[in-house]
Amino acid sequence: MRRGALAGAALALLAAGPALAEVRVRYVEPERFTDAQNRTTSGMTLRVTLAEMTRAFEEFGARTLPPGDALDVTVTDIDLAGFERPGFSGPDGVRVVSDVSPPRIRLSYVLRRGRQRLAAGEETLTDINFMLTANARFSSGPLYYERALLRDWFTRRFGPARR
Q: Which residues constitute the signal peptide according to the record (predicted)?
């Protein structure tokens, strides 16, 4: 009976398929980032912004990278789309988003499969046409311009979404 239970558990693990790609994100001195807090309309603190960014990296990594790959990302600067309008601080403040203030993310990355290093680099992600290229799927929720920027980067760098 015990052997049957162990065999069943082993088959269940095998049937589950390979693990998703692993994405690890590290932020270097985030308190010095150009503009990673939206203290105005959404009230997003730095901690919340970094959590949302990490969630986006993990989501797009899971969709784009083959199972078993590992992506290590080090973010060295974030500049959110738009800017906080001077004189309007606090929860009722105003964040102005226009085509002259695109989102920008500075990062380095290493992609591995097992012990093999597949790709590595340093990049500054930005899109001066961000107001035109961010499609309706990203037009709501926090950091939608930044999420669109990351989605496009994953597609350009690692290929189209697999799932």
A: 1-21
